[in-house]
Amino acid sequence: MGNIHKSIVTALITVFAAFFAVQAQAQADRSVAEGSQAYVYEVEQLETVTPPGSVPLDLDTPMGLMESFMSAGERGDWSDAAAALDLANTDPAERDADQLAAQLYDLLNRSLSIGWTELPDRPDAVDTTTSSKDPMSGVARRSLTIGLLDLENRAVPIRLARVQAPDGEPVWVFSRQTVENIPALYEVYGPTKFEKSLPPALRKQAFWTLAWWEVIALPLILLAGALAAALTYLAINRMRDRQDEDTKLYGVLQAIHLPATLLAFAGTFALVRTTFFRLSGPAKDLLDPLQLILIIAAIVGIALSVIEALFDFATSRRTDELEAPGNNEDRNFYTKMSAIRRILTAVILLAGIGFVVVASNLSNTLGFSIIASAGVLGLVLVFAARKVLGDIMASVQIAFAQTARIGDAIHYDGQWCFVEKIGFTHLRLRTWDERRVIAPVSDFTSDSFENWTKQDASLMMHVELELDNRADVDKLREPFREFVENDEDVIDPEDAICEVVAQDARAMTVRFMARAEDPKCGWAMHCRLREHMLAAASRLDAAAGNEPMPAYLPREREVRMDLGREDEAT
């Protein structure tokens, strides 16, 4: 048993020894100094194009490295600029340090916006300007990332590293991984063949970070996009004019007219930029997200326009049928379809916004940073999203709870209306006299309203007349009964009622009620009933003659006072 324990202990010691040997071998090429030494990557040999002691650049600090490298690049002195490159990961037989320095300078100048104020000007790279709450405040660093470039679906950092060779001083250089990625990045972000064929005079810097050819090319790119947009607009317009206005294709073409024109402009703009002109620097940072936003907005607009056009076409062709008294099945179907359409719209919009935010890396662009730093964007998004999301949820709630369906007859704000459309923020209502009322969805979730076709389309209509207190109501029941038995819109004559509902010193109120098949028929019947009963009351009143016989229509009483006799009496 003791031998077994000894064997186990020996095996564990062997495993741990092998593990630490592997780790030591992995760190042999590069290690971190400890104790009082500088915080650096220790290397066996710093592979640069210049021998120790003759470095033409300021490599003591990150800011010194960047300033001296960019200055050498502006002079075209690539042999000096190459002193800032750690060439350890490049093949000595194939490397061209001057070419790598020129390509890196082009990448930094064209494709990155360098935050010069954020570069430390200390050998230990301690950031002395940050807040004390920053976890990196007062911490020495041996590596800094000054930018990111996308390459083959991954973000490649442009990184500075502080390295030290034996018996050498610590220096800041572009890291060996960054130098290794320069050719691949230059292939993607470098100048096109067309740009390389331009005269040297046009490739010189004009102002800002733009070269002369970029100043000339930008208006040409915009002109090409505008020309493509105009041709697309005219083509769709001609195709639409050849269609009948009642066809689905006409509605779809009408809906996608503007989004397709926008897509033609943005797509042509992106295609010309990618193929012929690769703008650089801050101009690229501003145009890239704007270009992506326009393309995504156009695609989302086309998708939403097609959905909207098809839905409107389907519902507009069946508006009268939806308002039919017994057509509850179709009203339920189109209301649910409307809710699904709004959900799809919200999903498409959120997907488009999410794609733009992720794909364009907006947080690192110049324009977005300016807005975000002011805090304006956050406030706008918070308040706008709160209201919009509330309205969207209210409209979905109305559609699925079916408190108001498309085609329902409702009584809203003192008006009789039909529901024509349930949108994200508003309901479109059609009044009985063909006017359109736009009502906020919040009114239908927070306030009460009358739905006349929720369960049963039939409606009890009533007419109230003010008659003289001496009127004989029984004599009015005869013409009322005659009306309800002969009118074609009264569906249940036995349900009709005539009753006195109020009275005061001047007159009494008599109500005549009869049931109609639906609100539309009920309104016409209501008007005929009022006219019929007023005519009957007028005939009875005329036949009554002078008082004291019964009167039907109210009369104003006059009180006479003989002031002269009253004076004599006093």
TrEMBL record:
Residues 1-26 form the signal peptide. SUPFAM superfamilies: Sm-like ribonucleoproteins (SSF50182). The keyword Membrane applies. Keywords: Membrane, Signal, Transmembrane, Transmembrane helix. It is found in: Membrane. The chain crosses the membrane at residues 210-236, 248-272, 292-311, 343-360, 366-385. Coiled coil: none annotated. Residues 388-454 form the Mechanosensitive ion channel MscS domain. Pfam families: MS_channel_2nd (PF00924). The keyword Heme does not apply. Gene3D superfamilies: 1.10.287.1260, 2.30.30.60. InterPro entries: LSM_dom_sf, MscS_beta-dom_sf, MscS_channel_2nd. This is Mechanosensitive ion channel family protein. It comes from Qipengyuania gelatinilytica.
